[in-house]
Amino acid sequence: MMLQFYGNMITGRIPREIGRLARLRVLGLSSNRLVGEIPKELGRLTSLFNLNLSDNQLSNRVPQEIGRLSNLESLDLSMNNLAGPIPPQLGNCFKLRYLKLSENYLNGSIPFQIGNLIHLQGALDLSHNSLNGEISSQIGNLHMLEMLNLSHNMFSGSIPKSFEGMLSLQSVDFSYNDLEGPIPNSKAFQKALVEAFIKNKGLCGEVQGLRPCNAPSTSHGDARKGHQVVIFIVLPLLAALLLLYIVVGVSSIYYQRRRNKEKEVLERSNRNPFSIWNYDGIDAFEQIVEATESFDDKYCIGIGGYGKVYKANLPSGQVVAVKKLHPLEGGDQSDQRSFRNEIRALTEIRHRNIVKLYGFCSHAQFSFLVYEYMERGSLASILRNDRGAAELDWTLRVNIIKGVAHALSYMHRDCTQPIVHRDLSSKNVLLNSEFEACVSDFGTARLLIPDSSNWTTLAGTYGYIAPELAFTMRVTEKCDVYSFGVVALEVMMGRHPGELISLSSPSGHDTLLKDLLDQRLSDPTTEIVQEVLFVVSMALSCIRPDPNSRPTMHYVAQEISIGRPSFSLGPFHGLTLRQLMDLKV
Questions:
Q1: How far apart (Å, rounded) are the C-alpha atoms in residues 236 and 247?
Q2: C-alpha distance from residue 206 to each of 176, 201, 279 (Å)
Q3: Strands of 128-266, DSSP E
Q4: N or C: which terminus of the chain has fewer CB atoms within 10 Å of its end residue's CB?
Q5: Would you tell me how many other CB atoms lie within 10 Å of the CB of residue 396?
Q6: HSE (side-chain half, CA atoms, 13 Å) at 469
Q7: How many CB atoms lie within 10 A of CB 222?
Q8: What is the pLDDT of residues 464-516, one digit of tens each?
Q9: What is the enclosing helix (H) or strand (E) of 252?
Q10: Annotated active-site positions, please?
């Protein structure tokens, strides 16, 4: 039994009578205008496995009665006005896989009982609250957790060393707290961006942009001796420093005048060097051109509709991918529009599953964009190669689909202005050395303007374009949803699902699922088969002809991350396409 009214304008309070619906499995009231407290009567819904009250105006405390929901797998109370402490009773919801309490006014410390939620997998998000105190080391027990966000709080002390045992972590964020000391020595922390640790009291570690941890401080006795030494040498140094200050001042004036002159020369020659983070623009331009020997074909690693992609090894040791646009012909500005679109889109977004734009160059001789280098190339090229496809086991394939879903959900929902990719395909999904997926190629991306028709010209890759675009020319987020469904099926089938998309006769729906899945892999094991079934079922819902019947990417990303209870559809070898299409996802 499900009760879902998300994305409407429902006002008033949540009726306490809902607590009488003993067989209710899903309660979704997100993105409305509900006010008042969360009824403690919801604690009677012991069959509930998904409770989503996010994006409302609910206030008062999180009722401790929610701890009675022993079958609860997903709890989202984010983006409300909830206050008070996190109830320790939440630690009794042992089946929780997804817990999000972000963007409220919660205070106090994290109850150590949260460490009992050993099945938490999708996310633990407590960001944007007023939580304080030290972070409980018990959180380190959450060995299945993939995303941990404790940012924008008032936590103090250090990040517990027990977090090094959280081997499943893919994403962490501890920014905007009062933390200090070394970050844990584990992959998720060492590979995180420095933005995940900024605005703290003094975190340190081996992360680019974060200061290295210093040696232990000296004792008081040693410090006293050090002060004496300083006193003896400080006076002679003052005279030397004064002289040095004069020399540096004169040199600085000379250097500044020289830089201004160089800038004037560049402006006159219309040479607009690209800006690249952590690099000087002019120097980076020269490094790129030199590293590719003026874009020699031997460095080319891919060719697209708007240009070629090159691999560049910079002197610093960093490897980047450089997409150089085709030279303009006959005054055609389409490539330049693509160039501007990509810059505009990628400077607006930062997400672990979206390729990072390091910089760009708009120059009379060369126009190119510089990205992070993805070692394994495109998803399409891997699936076409038998050896590469064999490396992509069912777990990796499910994780790739999750990554793409999270990227699109972020673009559609979490950006200041929603962004539609418009050209999602397996060619535009890149994989790094650990098979993590990143969405790329934003040349046709479109910023959606609220209260506008958002008409567009037909863009995208044949076989991935939503059918409504062919006759309405109106771009919406549901166009990306359709393309995602095609890509997800392609990942599971190992080939483009052309024949599956075109199935129109009911008899075609009786095809066995095992015959559709990639035959280069053995059948999914019992540990992953439920996720495979749910992903295929969700993908089928995304390619429905009617865009209004497709789910949103936010819903897809959330549901795929938290998973579903076991399907009772019979043995795997007997499952048909019709059974998965009939599932209510």
A1: 17
A2: 19, 17, 20
A3: 130-134, 147-149, 154-157, 171-173, 178-182, 202-204
A4: N
A5: 16
A6: 23
A7: 10
A8: 888 887 666 677 889 899 999 999 999 999 999 887 776 544 445 678 888 88
A9: helix 220-268
A10: 423
